[in-house]
Amino acid sequence: MEEKRTDGRQDVAAIAAAADFENAFRAHFASVYRFIARRVGADLAEDLAAEVFATAYRRRDSYEPSRGSLRSWLYGIAANVVRGHWRDEQQLLELDARMGAPATEAAFADAADDRVIAAALAPRIAGALAALNPDQRDVLLLYAWAELSHEEIAAALGIAQGTARSRLSRARAALRAHLGEFDFNLWTFKESGHA
Question: Rounded to two decimals, what is the model's pTM?
Fold first, then answer.
């Protein structure tokens, strides 16, 4: 019985393609990671950078060197992955804003409980955050949630300290315009007619 042979050229081509991809990964992963980290922060950047290369591997047959360098093709994929991440985040913020707080007796029985206040305010705050542009939202969340200083925010986003300060100022102004008399220190809305 004769053994079926595979075409040796296909094997060589597959090995060459795998080696080319591995070389591309080694050559470009660090720079793609840095680009993404500047957009979304270091914690998420590794996952998104891995997604870029997984997408590139799946779509490797669509790469056309005549249309641009491998580097520019990878950065195009990276920009789309980051854009998709922001779109997903925006949709989640809008969903949180639409859902509102569950109306339970316990939610209003103890107004001093921080969790109840947060649950009641979450939809309004999520809506206000969704209304910010991504640059303002990034700076505000790095300041409020990650508790980074202006200098740390500037370093994290790769922007000047003055830019970080002005974006934070504009984000706060936009939140005030959207939320009205919200006291960020107490996480409450000031009632009209009260000092």
Answer: 0.45
The fold adopted by the segment(s) 8-85 is Rna Polymerase Sigma Factor; Chain: A (1.10.1740)
Radius of gyration (C-alpha) of the chain in whole angstroms: 24
Low-confidence ranges of the chain (pLDDT < 50): 1-6, 8, 10-13, 103-112, 191-195
Q: Which amino acid is at 66?
A: S
How many Å separate Cα 53 from the centre of its chain?
A: 18
Could you say which architecture CATH assigns to the domain 100-189?
A: Orthogonal Bundle (1.10)
Q: How far is CA 80 from the centre of its chain?
A: 12
Task: Give dist(CA 23, CA 31) in Å, integer.
Answer: 14
CB 168 within 8 A of CB 140: yes
Query: What is the separation, in whole angstroms, between the first and last Cα of the chain?
Result: 96
pLDDT at site 104: 47
Q: Kindly state the tokens that stand for 133.
A: 């542009």
* Contacts of 192 by beta carbon, 8 Å cutoff, 6+ apart: 181
User: What is the domain partition of the chain in residue ranges?
Assistant: 8-85, 100-189
